[in-house]
Amino acid sequence: MQDLTTSDTQIKVNSTLNKSVGKRYLTDGNPETCWTSQQGLPQTIQLVFPRPVIPKRVSITFQGGFVGTRCSVQIPSPVSGEWEAIAKIFPEDNNRPQNFTLTLDAPNLLDGGVEKLKLTFEESSDFFGRITIYDLRLEGDFS
After folding, report:
1. Is the pLDDT at 110 greater than 80, yes or no?
2. Euclidean distance between CA atoms 67 and 69, whole angstroms
3. How far, in Å, CA of 100 to CA of 125, rounded?
């Protein structure tokens, strides 16, 4: 397995608290920088890859108290193009790195790989729905 979040991976988020905690800090490898969303749910992070990938594991380091405690991992449907859940993950409310093996509901959806993946955080440990992530990694194989 290799890190699929390369410098060529495009990142889109649906909100950012301000520029000092922007999306570029999700994958910069610096433990002192982070992305923080605005309040409200759901919060999303979309990864667009330069070539097809086969995702196998998500690694996330949150700030305790600002954790996305229920997350849907989604890819575009090969038929409709609509976002379709391939796995659910349930992070704990802590600030340690957490690894989640993607046990896929329908493994054949990844045949040939995917060029986009979205994490939709449906719940947060923060009363206002904010999420703070210090590190995000998607591991797997290039197709």
Report:
1. no
2. 6
3. 18
Residue 47 bridge partners (DSSP): 11, 117
Whole-structure pTM value? 0.95
**112 Rama sector, left if φ>0, alpha if ψ -120 to 50, beta otherwise:** left
- Cα–Cα dist 70/21, whole Å: 22
Cβ atoms of 35 and 23 closer than 8 Å: yes
pLDDT tens for each residue of 12-35: 999 999 999 999 999 999 999 999
Question: Mind listing the domains of the chain with CATH numbers?
Answer: 2-138 (2.60.120.260)
- Answer whether 141's CB lies under 8 Å from 49's CB: no
